[in-house]
Design goal:
The structure holds two protein chains of two kinds. Chain A is mainly alpha-helical. In chain A, 76% of the residues lie in helices and 0% in strands. The relative contact order of chain B is 0.11. Classes of the chains: A mainly alpha, B alpha/beta. The structure holds adenosine-5'-triphosphate (ATP) and magnesium ion.
């Protein structure tokens, strides 16, 4: 029974991806006369060199974090889509901590992370309290908080932490004590991916093996039932968003300490919104977030490689993604086939 | 002529459960045909197939002796089939007439505005024709359930139904309302309507049907003329053993006062005063029955007592402590258990597993968890025990509650609340939708918890249940206690009925006795 289900889910996802790829290929056919070559780079590019593999992995890291952050609130049926702003604000806080906290080996890395988590959590707490106090829609307020994070963060960086000697609008360079170590000698593969995977396990454990996770999921499944059972729904609404914000904030810190070693964003990087896609693909399951994030990262990396090698605009990948999401979230897709398969196996057991 | 023929119907749900396994079901035109069977036997499934909500895996359906393919309720309606679900599907803010004509509204000249007068006329016409009067212009919201049900029936009739399916229509009705429904149904049948009726109350089945089909484990056990079988025989066919329809109840040995309600009043959001100075007390080891037609304040009383509704005045003393205004969180921790009237909205999370549902009030305690971590093995162990003890029909404690049949969902709720170790159990319609065998079991269980020293407040629309189980009875009418009975020996359903309808009432001094111990 369970096996049938797993087979079915796998087949469904694979089919969906194939169909989306096919559509992507057709679009390429219209966009260029070198469609075959471009498509090859898109499909295989991320694995073609060591450097690209590293690029793929590093790009996966923030997506795992934001995917987890979004999964946590979605499991509680709370539509806080503020991961983008939480990550951004976490990154600003990390910049502050990296520049001004005591430069002590290892310890500073930890402190930067904790500070970024606190900042992300605080950012998420605002819509959470507004929801709990005045029943303000967290969807709207968290979206607004994204803008506030962006402009407020840019103000802080550009006016207080900007490195005027750098050629671009960036912060001062972090001290070495706030750099994540390299895991390979020749490539900048930072340990963020391991931390992210660790967090996926942690979040899974939290959701499915702790009291608080249980409360959170029950509130998500039926709020009235949770209240009736003696669960403090208001508390859950608040702590689930704070936890989510902390995870997103951490992503910002790791991204800066691992990759750029300074604050570099003048545009919001979009990981928070990709996180929503990752959570959707993963059906809010923290363990599934890992492959889902890897997948989205693969698409992105593939499109950049394709763009670099053939000059086709990477925007095409945005279209591809949209198609995938449409297909995968349409639960009804292939439902008919699913029913037939399960019916058949059940009947054969009955005999 | 045969109205319905369902031949060798097999239904396998997507999760692999075989709900119908070669069912044969035939209904003659103009007969009232009852479909009975244990919880999970496949009744609702069979009717959903007939109404096009579910697709059969195998089998053939003929309507008026013509083979048909029913792929949606829309098809079913076109074939003249109507269904009244157990959970009403009415829009509370619309009027009765608007609800009935919804989707087929008569329009004025240009087809842009709804012709309300015409709609009311249409409704009154059908209502009169079938003897089902309704207040066509009133808003549905506050109407009694009996009327709401009538509206559902009219909805089907106005769409030209010739075959009417009623899935447990009487579960939510009072005896008077049930009587009225039966008169109407018999009337409809006389006019040639074919009626399929599902109920767990065998006395009703005996009273209303021409023929009865018994399902067990997704198979047809047989179809019988009503005069050929007794209630006992029906239940034996359903369950496969003898069911005791009479429960023996040793006299109560009441102990200390657990609950003392004094002068409880409550104004609803819309300003209506739904509780007017209600006072009663309840001791450990006794069962206090609350009788009353639905909508006379019982729901509010229960919700206030269990911390789900706030803003009442008066006093509620639980184990010597004032608890008015406390939340469910607090009250659960002060040992209040609650079987709610609505299992889908409140009593369960249908998307969570049986095991998860069973621990929702105790997940934070030993043995289910430590300071932070849950102990899944203990949870599953407990769930397996509860499933066995309450004979919940499922193959795994990890099954989603939403995949259980209505009665089995109810058993999950009952299993949780009975095992919570409470001092006060508020049981609101505890056996609603449960089959005879399990009803017997739940009622015995209620007596058992009483004898173990729990104070039980039993709210039920089923007077038989109230009479059978209660040690004392209060009757509520328009937010007041209008009747108080100390011993129920000799009391009949009719007696209670007079008080429930406000025809008779006890003088205030007698009513006060409910609170004086
Ligand atoms: N949507 C569903 N998905 C999976 N299984 C289901 C679903 N609905 C019902 N079942 C299963 O099918 C069986 C028959 O259910 P059904 O609701 O038809 O029973 P029923 O005779 O109406 O019972 P009750 O008297 O409790 O209402 C049950 O074992 C139930 O668990
Ligand atoms: Mg049913």
């Amino acid at each position: 029974m369970r096996r049938d289900r797993i087979i079915f889910e796998t087949v469904r996802t694979t089919l969906t991806i194939l169909i989306a790829l096919l559509i992507g290929y057709v679009i390429l056919l219209f966009a260029t006369d070198k469609a075959n070559e471009a498509f090859k780079w898109f499909l295989l590019g991320p694995l073609s060199t060591k450097r690209r593999i590293v690029e793929l992995l590093n790009r996966t890291t923030p997506l795992i974090f934001t995917g987890l952050a979004v999964s946590v609130v979605f499991q509680a049926e709370i539509f806080n889509i503020g991961a983008e702003g939480q990550l951004f604000f976490g990154a600003v806080a990390a910049t502050f901590a990296a520049l001004y906290f005591p430069h002590i080996k290892f310890l500073q890395i930890i402190l930067v992370m904790l500070f970024a988590m606190a900042a992300g959590g605080a950012w998420a707490a605002v819509p959470a309290y507004m929801k709990a106090k005045w029943n303000a829609s967290e969807l709207v307020s968290s979206l607004m908080m994204n803008y506030v994070a962006f402009f407020f963060g840019l103000y802080l960086v550009n006016y207080h932490m900007r490195d005027v000697n750098a050629g671009a609008l960036v912060s001062y360079r972090f001290p070495r004590t706030a750099w994540l170590p390299r895991m390979l000698r020749r490539y900048n593969l930072h340990p963020g991916i391991l931390i992210a995977i660790g967090f996926a396990l942690l979040v899974w454990f939290f959701l499915y093996r702790t009291k608080y996770g249980y409360e959170l999921r029950m509130v998500g499944k039926n709020k009235e039932f949770a209240r009736f059972s003696g669960i403090k729904v208001e508390n859950v609404v608040i702590y689930s968003q704070i936890i989510s914000g902390m995870i997103a904030g951490l992503a910002g810190a790791i991204e800066l300490m691992g990759l750029y070693k300074r604050f570099v964003w003048q545009m919001t990087p979009g990981y928070g919104f990709d996180g929503i896609i990752v959570a959707l693909l993963a059906r809010n399951n923290p363990l599934m977030v890992i492959p889902a994030a890897l997948f989205i990262s693969y698409l992105r990396t593939g499109s950049y490689v394709m763009g670099r090698m053939t000059g086709i605009a990477p925007e095409i990948v945005v279209m591809l993604q949209a198609i995938m999401i449409l297909l995968i979230t349409a639960e009804a897709f292939l439902a008919f086939w699913k029913r037939r398969m399960i019916e058949k196996s059940a009947m054969s057991r009955e005999e | 002529m045969k109205a319905v023929q369902m031949i060798n119907i097999v239904k396998v749900y997507p999760n692999g459960i075989v709900a119908n396994n070669g069912v044969n079901f035939e209904v003659e035109v103009g007969e009232i045909h009852s479909l009975v069977g244990e919880n999970g036997a496949g009744k609702t499934t069979l009717m959903k197939i007939l109404f096009g909500i579910e697709q059969p895996t195998q089998g053939e359906i003929r309507i008026f002796e013509k083979p048909v393919h029913i792929s949606s309720p829309h098809d079913a309606i076109k074939l003249g089939i109507g269904m009244v679900h157990q959970h009403f599907m009415l829009v509370p803010s619309l009027t009765v007439a608007e609800n009935i004509v919804l989707g087929m509204e008569p329009t004025k000249a240009w087809g842009t505005t709804i012709d309300m007068d015409r709609a009311v006329e249409m409704v009154n016409e059908v209502a009169e024709k079938y003897g089902l009067p309704v207040p066509a212009k009133e808003v549905v919201l506050d109407l009694p359930v009996g009327i709401k049900q009538r509206i559902e029936i009219l909805k089907a009739l106005i769409r030209g139904a010739k075959i009417l399916i009623l899935d447990e229509p009487t579960a939510v009705l009072t005896p008077q309302e049930t009587e009225e429904l039966f008169v109407a149904l018999k009337n409809l049948a006389k006019k040639g309507m074919t009626i399929i009726f599902i109920s767990h109350k065998l006395n009703e089945v005996k009273e209303i049907s021409d023929r009865i089909t018994v399902l067990r484990d997704g198979k047809t056990m047989g179809t019988y003329r009503v005069e050929d079988v007794t209630e006992e025989e029906i239940s034996r066919l359903m369950v496969g053993r003898d069911v005791e329809l009479v429960i023996d109840r040793p006299p109560a040995k009441p102990g200390r006062v657990v609950l003392q309600v004094k002068d409880l009043s409550y104004y609803r959001e819309d300003g209506v005063r739904v509780l007017k100075g209600v006072s009663f007390s309840l001791r450990s080891g006794e069962i206090l029955g609350v009788a009353g037609v639905e909508g006379n304040g019982q729901r509010e009383l229960v919700e206030i007592l269990t911390g789900l509704r706030f803003g009442a005045t008066g006093s509620i003393v639980l184990n010597g402590e004032e608890v008015l205004g406390l939340t469910a969180y607090d009250l659960r921790r002060k040992k209040v258990a609650h079987i709610p009237e609505d299992r889908i909205e409140k009593g369960a999370a249908v998307k969570a597993s049986i095991a998860e549902n069973l621990i929702s009030d105790r997940y934070y305690k030993r043995p289910f968890s430590g300071r932070l971590v849950l102990f899944p093995k203990k949870v599953i162990e407990f769930a397996k025990k509860a499933i066995k003890m309450f004979s919940i029909k499922t193959d795994s404690p990890l099954t989603e509650v939403g995949m259980l049949s209505g009665g089995n969902m109810q058993k999950v709720v009952v299993a949780r609340e009975f095992t919570s170790g409470a001092d006060l159990l508020v049981a609101d319609q505890p056996t609603r939708g449960i089959d005879v065998g399990s009803t017997e079991f739940v009622r015995k269980k209620i007596i058992e918890v009483r004898d173990s020293g729990v104070a039980v407040l039993l709210v039920s629309a089923d007077l038989q249940e109230i009479l059978q189980l209660s040690d004392r009875i209060i009757v509520m009418y328009k937010g007041e206690i209008v009747g108080y009975f100390d011993k129920n020996e000799g009391l009949t359903e009719e007696d209670l009925g007079y008080y429930m309808l406000g025809v008779k009432r006890h003088d205030p001094d007698r009513v006060k006795e409910a609170a004086l111990l």
